[in-house]
Amino acid sequence: MKTYIIPSLKLTGLLILICSALYPLLIAGIAKAAPGGGKGETLEVNGKVVGYAAIGQNFTDEAYFIGRPSAVDYNAAGSCGSNKGASNPDYLASVQARIDTFLVHNPGVDRSQIPAELVTASGSGLDPDITPAAAKIQIKRIAKLRHLEEADLLKLVEKQTEKPLLGLFGVEKINVLKLNIELNKLKQ
Amino acid sequence: MNTELIGVIATFLITVALAIPFGKYMAKVFKGEKSLLDFMAPFERLIFRICGIDPTKQMNWKQHLLALLSINMLWFVYAFIMLLTQGALFLNPDGNPSMSPDLSFNTAISFLVNCNLQHYSGESGLTYLTQLAVITFLQFVSAATGIAALIVVFNAMREKTTEGLGNFFDIFLKSLTRVLLPLSIVVATILAFNGTPASFDGKDTLVNLQGDTVQVSRGPAAGMIAIKHLGTNGGGWFGANSSHPLENPNYLTNMVEMIVQVLIPIALIFTLGFYLNRKKLAYVIFGVMTFGMLTFLIPTLIAEVNGNPAITQMGVNQSMGSMEGKEVRFGSWASAYWSIVTTIISTGSVNSMHDSSMPVSGSMQLLGMMTNAFYGGCGVGILNYYIFIIIAVFISGLMVGRTPEFLGRKIEAREMKIASFIALLHPLLILAGTALSSYVNVNHANADWAVKPGNWLNNPGYHGFSEMLYEYTSSAANNGSGFEGLGDNNLFWNITTGFVLILGRFLPIIGPIAIAGLLARKKYIPESAGTLRTDTGTFGIMTYAVIMIIAALAFFPALVLGPFAEYFSLYF
Prior knowledge:
The structure holds two protein chains of two kinds. Chain A folds into two domains: 1-39, no CATH class; 41-185, no CATH class. Chain A has helices spanning 2-31, 89-105, 132-136, 139-146, 150-160, 176-185; strands at residues 42-45, 48-52, 129-130, 174-175. The radius of gyration of chain A is 23 Å and the shape is elongated. By secondary structure, chain A is mainly alpha-helical. Chain B is built from 18 helices and four strands. Chain B has a two-stranded antiparallel sheet with strand order 1-2. Chain B is globular and about 75 Å long. The interface between A and B is large, with 104 and 120 residues.
């Protein structure tokens, strides 16, 4: 064993230099050319940063489109899911409560229209997206609160819908923060 | 046509299409033939000169193991000390504290053994220094260790009778300079251009659209996330791993991360074919492993896509599938696919929370780790499979009355004893651990510990038992994913899983190298009409049966108590 210790020590030192210093510095350098410069892409309103494009936000104000439930209340200093099991009775009761709450705040919406993702928590607690269906069932409420035409809101939702990758792979989705930024721009 | 399904199929096909040429490339690299990155050679020679290593010196199997274990031991001591003192060291913009001794112990081992079980959350549990100099470093070298161990076994499988199986340091360094580092640079660049942070800026504080003040954790994450997948490590920069929108920003990065985590394990199967010039054997192994993956994948897809029956009863629309613990940008198809890929190979990164998977999916994820031989981790996957080949050869030999031989060498009692020991070690570690924790959880629920054993579980009933079973399965398989509801950052879990991790890593490396080394010394017997052929479909089915029967016999009772019972309570 002794024959290997000294060479191993030296090799370890060199590899720490390569893998833990040179490599991340190289990537940081390359990332300077990327959108956001490797610091994360931000969104601005009137020159002021209002959030990160990738990170969901907590919308408690009903005049905004709301995102999915979050186990960390969208505080991106941390991240996690609820880790509730599918058969957990407390969990199922809380999903039921979210459905009931949603129905109270969105009169005229039928229970069967509520997409399950709007009443179940995301994996990271920071999910920035909802499905088009989840946006559309909120139109009625927002139109009423903001005195806007439902047709205009529908147009906005459709414009903000991102197609699957290359139109082939994955899901259609809407970034809630981007949608709400555009929503604020709509005139009454 | 369903774009989510197409996404999954395309991901798999791209993986295989890349793995074949890449497997060929690795065979050339380790054979010492001309290959693309030969310009690295002077750089490698310089490293060896500084370290005083002669890379041409041949080692026998014992010397290989000695070198491997010595350098691993050094890394453990280094990582342990760094984690214990990180709070006082530099590159800590968020001011995170040092780890407790038991958490340092667990974390150092976990990353050393390529498992990446995380009993902390990256945002608050590590500093940028330890993320890079401990975590990223170990992710590189533990993957290279696995590849080096496998190439040693390949060397032993060659036709000539030999003691010399190559030089450990030479193979190890080439795995880094010719395989892991260049690929990591490519993948990290893709991630960075899709929104993963790579700069050294600390946590950001801002006022959001609604007017609340919020924080966003960041850091030089892109490089780490690349090697975390390429090296089948799996430990995330952020707590939520690859479900975090900065760690895995969109469907493209999700495809890339899914492809690269299984790229090297699949490519190494083809490397075997090119390296030993036994392509048919490689195709049979690939076929068996792919069939094994589908055995677990199809039930998982069906369960996740159809959603939670208890939520269906509430009358809402579950057309997206079961979405608790999943992200909208991936959807349930890609999340289900990822959950199986990450558990059959030993990555253990997640893009959805496995704790919230349907019971069928949970049992398939568990089985993926319990078999631990379909594709498998970087290098070690084929080592595990090798053990099952030895057992299958022995059993088939007995069945048809031929001397058990593999690649021209007789398998005798000594090799068989080692193989049986390794095959049985895995269930022993998992079941003994789960039994112990269940006992403590029930009989000492109120023990005066930092976290009372009665409060370990995040879910009641069968699912709570599954959380403990999953933790030990993940540790023994060196996987690293978890049913993360488990309250695992405390003395009991840190210490017990720490020991399971070490045993579950090094014995399954020592065993196959010892067997291969012993076999290589024996006389080579050319194949004849009387030889049991191991590169046929029949033998493939036999190996598959051995793997599944061992798993079923060992784990069926535990699975019944956990996910199966939950399934029946939920659906009937």
